[in-house]
Amino acid sequence: MFKKIFSKIIFPLLILLLFSSCENSFSWLYKLFSEEYHINFDKEAYEAAKEKWQALNCDKYSYSYKIYADWGPSPIVKVTIVDGLASHQLESEYEDDEEALSLEESEKFFSAESLFERIYQAYQEALETGENPPEGLISENITVSYDEESGIPVRIEIDSSWDESRDGGWWNMDIKDITLE
Predict the structure, then answer these.
(1) Does the pTM of the predicted model rise above 0.70?
(2) What is the pLDDT of residues 12-25, one digit of tens each?
(3) 115 Cβ partners below 8 Å, 6+ apart?
């Protein structure tokens, strides 16, 4: 019985694992079983979305965003861009949340370009970290969802995966109410 299970299931999986590397189509399998530092980021989707946004050449649009991070939430901010000039207003201050940051304390994203810059910054930081990763750091995860029409990011998630020695940091951003004119 064991011989059949080994020959039909376990042995093929072992062969697959041995011949899988980070550079081929089985990279997800390699990463699943690997403790080596790696970066999870879909750079092709990022570049395609950024190109879509740039091709629109839109200078009049608006969106709202809110940041959630391990240090606390930000207020909801409504951003309006007209002729390339940005204005913003707070949609809520979260008086009931003592952990909430004020707009002055939180990061500011007053253009679609600044959203793409934040994603690219996270990717560059992950590459730099990979040159000499701290002990216990397994991966940097940059997960982004994009608006199908405009390419503008609608959800950005940045987090670090560590071994059991410590918890990772995380940073999420929701972008809503995107309007192009």
Answers:
(1) yes
(2) 555 555 554 444 45
(3) 109, 152, 153, 156, 173, 175
Task: Please report the pLDDT score of residue 22 as a whole number.
Answer: 43
Contacts of 121 (CB under 8 A, 6+ apart): none
The amino acid occupying position 70 is: D
Sign of the dihedral defined by the CA atoms of residues 99, 103, 108, 112, in that order: positive
CB-based contact 155:175 (threshold 8 Å):
yes
Q: Is 142 left (phi over 0), alpha (psi -120 to 50) or beta?
A: beta
Burial of residue 69, with CB atoms counted within 10 A of its CB: 0-12 exposed, 13-18 middle, 19 or more buried? middle
**What does the pLDDT look like over 40-86, one tens digit per residue?**
999 999 999 999 999 999 999 999 998 888 777 778 889 999 998 88
Residue 73's Cβ-side half-sphere holds a number of Cα atoms within 13 Å equal to: 14
Closest Cα partner for 139 from 114, 109, 159, 125? 159
Report DSSP state, residue 134: P
Query: How far is residue 176's CA from residue 127's CA, in Å, rounded to a whole number?
Result: 29
> Which H/E stretch holds residue 181?
none
Taking 3-state DSSP, the helix, strand and coil percentages for the chain, each rounded to the nearest 5, stand at 35, 35, 35
CB 176 within 8 A of CB 63: yes
Q: Cα–chain-centroid distance for residue 105?
A: 21
DSSP H or E stretch at residue 111: none
